[in-house]
Amino acid sequence: MADLEPIRFSCDCGSVRGHIARSSKPGGTHVVCHCKHCRAAALWSGAPDPDPDGVGVFQTSADRVRFTEGQDKVTAIRLTPKGPFRWIASCCSAPLFNTASDPGVPFAGLIAARADDPAMLGKVRMHIFRPQPDGSSKWGGSPAVIVSMLTGLAAVRLSGRWKDTPLFDAATRKPLATPRLLTKDERATLYPPRAY
Ligand SMILES: [Zn+2]
Ligand SMILES: [Zn+2]
């Protein structure tokens, strides 16, 4: 699978490093998420408020992820009991990836800011969950883009490649690190009103 130059990523302090292997370009789908939870995760990490630009996420599959340094510093949080796993570098709190809680749903979203060369992620294909003037948010996904993403994930699932990820143990389906659910107090400051 590693035919092309991989997409390298690192945490803010550089202790955690790795790459996303790819057999075609760009090897994933670059989206921008405006949902309140992605914003909350950014605020939790101490990053500047991503509003109104949103959080860039490179959607790929978990079998492509490899850590080359600092895997022991990879940990995870959850904002809500059923929310996705948000993989974090414990050294500097930098968000690295989002994944489902079940490795059988093998998506992995690399936080775009972690890419050493963001140009390798390709152009933004869609903006999702953009807030609307009435206070709701618009899903905004493009059907063609979604279908191509789901087709890719289905192939990973059917081929059994989903088992080959550092983020989960394939036999037990247990995550590399047990995600810590943030407390109510921790969450309290992470959902400020939006300016738009
Ligand atoms: Zn770090
Ligand atoms: Zn989001």
Main β-sheet: number of strands, strand sense, barrel status?
8 strands, mixed
Structural class based on helices, strands and sheet pairing: alpha+beta
Please give the CATH architecture.
Beta Complex
CATH class: Mainly Beta
Which outline best applies?
A: globular
- What's the rounded overall pLDDT mean? 94
Report what the structure shows.
By secondary structure, the chain is of the alpha+beta class. It has a single domain (7-180), classed as Metal Binding Protein, Guanine Nucleotide Exchange Factor, Chain A (Beta Complex). It has three helices and 13 strands; from the N terminus they run βββαβββββββββαβα. It has helices spanning 36-44, 143-159, 184-188; strands at 7-10, 17-20, 29-33, 55-61, 65-69, 74-78, 85-89, 95-99, 107-111, 126-128, 130-131, 137-138, 180-181. The chain has an eight-stranded mixed sheet with strand order 10-3-4-9-8-7-6-13. It starts with 6 loop residues before the first strand and ends in an 8-residue tail after the last helix. Bound molecules: zinc ion (2 copies). One zinc ion (ZN) binds at residues 11-13, 15-16, 89, 91-92, 94.
Briefly say what this structure is:
The chain has 196 residues and is an alpha+beta fold.
Provide keyphrases for this structure.
8-stranded mixed sheet; binds zinc ion; alpha+beta; 196 residues; 3-stranded antiparallel sheet; Metal Binding Protein, Guanine Nucleotide Exchange Factor, Chain A
Layout of helices and strands, plus pairs?
Blueprint: E1 7-10, E2 17-20, E3 29-33, H1 36-44, E4 55-61, E5 65-69, E6 74-78, E7 85-89, E8 95-99, E9 107-111, E10 126-128, E11 130-131, E12 137-138, H2 143-159, E13 180-181, H3 184-188
Parallel strand pairs: 3-10, 6-13
Antiparallel strand pairs: 1-2, 2-5, 3-4, 4-9, 6-7, 7-8, 8-9, 11-12
This protein binds zinc ion (ZN) (2 copies).
